[in-house]
Amino acid sequence: MARHFDIEPLDATFGAVVRGIKVAHIDDATWRDLHAAWLQYALLVFPDQHLQRDQQIAFARRFGPLEFEMAAISNVKADGSLRPEADNDDVMKILKGNMGWHADSTYMPVQAKGAVFSAEVVPSIGGQTGWADMRAAYDALDNALRAKVEALSAYHSLYYSQSKLGHQHKEGSAYSGYGFHDGPVPRRPLVKIHPETGRKSLLIGRHAHNIPGMDADESEQFLQELVDFACRPPRVYHHDWTPGDAVVWDNRCLLHQATPWDMTQPRIMWHSRIAGDPISEAGVA
Fold it and tell me: How do 114-121 and 246-250 pair as beta strands?
């Protein structure tokens, strides 16, 4: 049966560009093909979509319930003025924190399933988004290291990851505080089994810390070495944004990162976060 769109794999172990459809107007048969491609490639890039708010939210909802409908990832304030980089306020600290490799909501009780992300305003240089394939990273481990990571877990905390940038979140800050919660710090295995494909992947990134059985320095070094190994070609792709681009990625097997840009230029991106399954995306009891 013919696909309802054109798909071009990226020059990486994952990801594809999808052309020939508008995601705001797809029928159920096209959706089924698209969802199958998403599970296979983990990242789908859709050029020239120019999604309105309700269209982006509706498309994200096709993948499941949303953790939140839509949030701006931006250095532009609500009044349209630029947020001065020199102020280094909480929003700026979060933007800079996001430049470290991470998976979304691993610091929440339930890890996110994925996200739809779209570009409204992009800077003339920089500001790419990168993704890294943790399925291929797991597959590339040698047998001894694979056996080691299979037995390990780590705690995940936004307080931890942001503290590395000197960010101590305070009530009433410019940042909404999403992710800064006072509940238990979730612990997650270093190897995640995908609930739909059954493939294993590494679950690491900047929020992970404090592996039980290791001291803090040993844990930090081990986790950083895993990230350095995992997030390199051919397992990475960095997207040069054009206004109107939209992407959807599988947060259960990819890490992602923002990259720096000239913050005297505006960058306005829109993020809709797809909620994880409370069973398969929960932490370790």
Answer: antiparallel
Q: Are 37 and 43 a contacting pair, CB within 8 Å?
A: no
* Residues 202, 191 contacting (CB under 8 angstroms): yes
Range of the domain at 234: 6-274
Rounded-to-integer distance, Cα 180 and Cα 234, Å: 34
Q: Is the pTM of this model over 0.85?
A: yes
Of 240, 278, 237, the closest CA to residue 256 belongs to 237
Q: Structure tokens of 29?
A: 């048969």
The per-residue pLDDT for range 241-280, each reduced to its tens digit, is 999 999 999 999 999 999 988 989 999 999 999 999 999 9
Number of folded domains that form the chain: 1
Classify residue 1: in a domain, yes or no. Answer: no
**Sequence letter at residue 165:** L
Radius of gyration of the chain (CA): 18
Tokens of 245: 């681009």
CA 40 centroid distance within chain: 17
